[in-house]
Design brief:
mainly alpha, 3-stranded antiparallel β-sheet, 3 strands, elongated
Length: 192
């Protein structure tokens, strides 16, 4: 992608199209060979219609967003390899403006993965810190009572919020005397 010095050269070409390479180099304070190299590269790139946009600062930002989005979506989330992403970038003529070789794409994939994992760590650390802070301020006031409906029920209420906690009867709990209701029904049928 274009560096700042190349962007300065491009801006100079736009503002002074008739200026010679030597004059541009003197005005910018950079070697004449750099200006000449950039001018010839620009002429080669200009064979494609999209080049004028991609040579602007907005175009450069678009290229960066496109490359990172393609690597994240296809490479990291989709599991597509760097070679296939390089093929895609070459098909849309991105290689005229950015270094999109297989090795550079693979390197960017690793950088994005590291950034994602670092972000995950920071979020988890923030959540942990917030939870610790909330637990220090947490005050629970419990009220216990029992009530009788058809059988005794133990009720626990958190008094500041009004939440009710009820005990569910586990399946392994010992049934009442006389067995389970299904056994009592079969015993009643047998006695008739």
């Amino acid at each position: 992608m274009l560096t700042k010095i190349w962007q300065q050269i491009m801006d100079r070409f736009r503002s002074h199209p008739e200026e010679s390479v030597r004059e541009s180099a003197n005005q910018l304070g950079i070697p004449k060979s750099t200006v000449h190299y950039h001018r010839t590269r620009t002429q080669k790139r200009r064979q494609n219609q999209e080049t004028e946009f991609w040579d602007t600062e907005a175009g450069q930002n678009f290229i960066k967003r496109l490359i990172v989005s393609a690597i994240y979506t296809f490479g990291i989330k989709g599991g597509i390899g760097a070679c296939r992403i390089e093929e895609f970038m070459n098909q849309i003529r991105m290689s005229t403006h950015a270094g999109v070789s297989e090795s550079s794409i693979y390197r960017m994939m690793k950088e994005i993965e590291v950034a994602i994992l670092r972000y995950k760590e920071l979020v988890e650390q923030g959540l942990t810190n917030r939870a610790v802070g909330q637990l220090e301020e947490l005050e629970v006031v419990l009220g216990l009572d029992e009530t009788w409906l058809d059988k005794m029920l133990l009720v626990c209420q958190e008094l500041s919020s009004g939440y009710l906690f009820l005990k569910l009867r586990p399946k392994e709990e010992t049934p009442k005397v006389g067995g389970s209701p299904s056994n009592r029904a079969s015993l009643a049928l047998d006695s008739k």
